[in-house]
Amino acid sequence: MSAMSWLHVRPRTLAGAAIVTAAAIGITTMAFAYEGNPTTELELHDGSVWITKAEASLVGHFNAESRVLDGQLGSPSADYDVLQDGGTVLVHQTSAATVGLVDTAAVTLGDGVQLPGDAELDYSARTVAVLDPKKGAVYVVPVGGLSSFSSAEAKPVLEKLGDGAHVTVGRDGTVHVASAAKATVYTVPVTPEGAFDEDAGIAEQKLEGVDEKSALSVSSVGERPVVLDATTGAVHIPGRSRSRWRSPRTPRSRSTRPTAKPCSSRRAPSC
Question: Which one of 44, 121, 205, 264 has the lowest number of neighbouring Cβ atoms within 10 Å?
Answer without folding.
Answer: 264
